[in-house]
Specification:
Elements lengths: L20 E2 L18 H5 L16 E2 L29 E9 L5 H18 L31 E6 L37 E7 L2 H14 L4 E10 L38 E10 L1 H4 L4 H8 L36 H5 L11 E12 L5 E11 L6 H9 L8 E11 L11 H5 L1
Antiparallel strand pairs: 1-2, 3-5, 3-6, 4-5, 7-9, 7-10, 8-9
Length: 431
């Protein structure tokens, strides 16, 4: 998978949580029915006299948990300098979904949708039902209360904007240069119906029931403005680390904060955000399982049992790409995945990817082979200098790639975090 050995290692686990505290919010806003007349804070939030309750309220600050998922608290705060679901310790379940805006959904209506979604996500992550006043105009559906008693299960909801989102009038000039559509790579077999998208929703939780219902809720709230383009479901191993090939995934992951955007030139609405590349990678498991263990390890460049590099040491030992056996043969093969995925020694944050993956198993294909593999997510500051060059190297001869098929692909800009009284990408929509 792209970038299997990049960046500086963290402590065991490779999941670097943010240590800052966030304040949970109070009540979410009520979105008045109909289309906002213009994109402005006054139009979207209005006044109390207009029947709009603003996000906010006093509550104790809760620090983002730094432990493993078995002992982490059930509630992950929604508000903060960046969206939850990036630095948050990974949950056991994920639902990824992309939506396409309707032909009539202009900038104002898109802003109203983001406001509805923000309000719902803030309540859902606290284990509460969305405010019924925020149902889309004309909707006959309503919250059924099926999550009563389940708990929030460390739910996080993360939103992103695809390149096509900025095709709406008034937004084109705001599309970041880094949010360019990904180029074609050799041997990709992409399904257009499961690729791209105007809006991304990433739902993480430790309960598959919670994740599924939250996606259904957001889909309902998008009625009339956006339709579901694709959805993918993933899970993790009990230890959160093994993938379906039997490998320890995420070794030598960099500090995820290096993937967050800041500094000169970053639009205010993107500060604290990131870019994410999503790839659905099918594993040719029936073929892989027949290979000798030594062959599988040579393809990766690491031992399957403990993730240690073939150049020696343990999992956290840096790979020595110059190491040779007594007969002069490189210990790490020239086409090993870890060699081709390794960045230059002096690579800056622009080349860093924080990788997160979930396994998927969607039954069998028509030929009887498993429809299973990895939902690969790479968080980064610029896909043009991180994911794209790494994937080009891998496509030119990575030994592991012959057992993988890239079937879906997307890239999104993930706005910065939300403060009480705000909604996702508000600075963009009202700027």
């Amino acid at each position: 998978m792209p970038g299997a050995d990049e960046g500086r290692p963290l402590a065991a686990g490779g999941e670097g949580p943010d240590s800052r505290a966030y304040a949970p919010a109070g009540q979410p806003p009520h979105v008045p029915p109909g289309r906002p007349p213009r994109v402005s804070r006054r139009a979207l939030f209005g006044s109390a006299a207009g029947g709009l309750t603003v996000l906010g309220g006093a509550a104790a600050a809760v620090a983002l948990w730094g432990g493993d998922r078995s002992t982490a608290p059930a509630i992950i705060p929604f508000h903060g300098p960046h969206q939850a679901g990036i630095l948050t310790p990974r949950q056991s379940q994920v639902r990824l979904a992309a939506f396409d805006l309707g032909a009539r959904t202009d900038q104002g209506r898109a802003a109203a949708l983001l406001l509805r979604w923000t309000a719902a996500a803030e309540r859902l992550t606290r284990g509460e039902s969305p405010d019924p006043r925020n149902e889309p105009p004309g909707s006959r559906a309503a919250e059924t209360g099926v999550l009563a008693g389940t708990g929030p299960a460390r739910l996080t909801v993360t939103f992103g904007l695809g390149p096509g989102f900025f095709d709406r009038p008034g937004l084109t000039r705001h599309r970041p240069a880094a949010l360019a559509p990904l180029p074609a790579f050799p041997d990709d077999r992409l399904d257009p119906a499961r690729s791209s998208g105007h809006l991304l929703v990433q739902i993480g939780a430790d309960d598959a029931f919670v994740a599924a219902h939250v996606l259904r809720t957001l889909q309902r709230l998008a009625q009339g403005e956006a339709r579901l383009r694709w959805t993918m479901t993933g899970f993790t191993a009990a230890d959160g680390r093994r993938n379906l090939m039997g490998q320890i995934d995420g070794t030598n992951n960099p500090d995820p904060r290096r993937a967050l955007l800041s500094g000169p030139g970053v639009p205010a609405w993107l500060v604290g955000g990131s870019y994410v590349v999503i790839r659905r990678i099918r594993m040719l498991l029936d073929h892989w399982d027949t290979l000798p263990a030594a062959h599988r390890e040579q393809a990766l460049g690491r031992r399957a049992a403990d993730g240690a590099p073939l150049s020696g040491g343990d999992e956290r030992t840096p790979v020595d790409l110059a190491a040779v056996r007594p007969d002069g043969v490189p210990r790490v093969a020239a086409n090993a995945h870890v060699r081709l995925a390794a960045p230059a020694a002096d690579a800056g944050d622009g080349a860093v990817m924080f990788r997160r993956g979930w396994s998927y198993h969607d039954g069998v294909r028509a030929d009887g082979t498993p429809d299973a593999g990895l939902l690969f997510l790479a968080w980064q500051r610029d896909p043009r200098t991180a994911f794209v060059p790494v994937q080009r190297r891998l496509a030119r001869g990575d030994a592991l790639s012959r057992y993988l098929v890239h079937e879906a692909s997307a890239v999104f800009a993930v706005p910065g975090g939300v403060s009480p009284g705000e909604y996702v990408a508000q600075g963009l929509m009202e700027g």
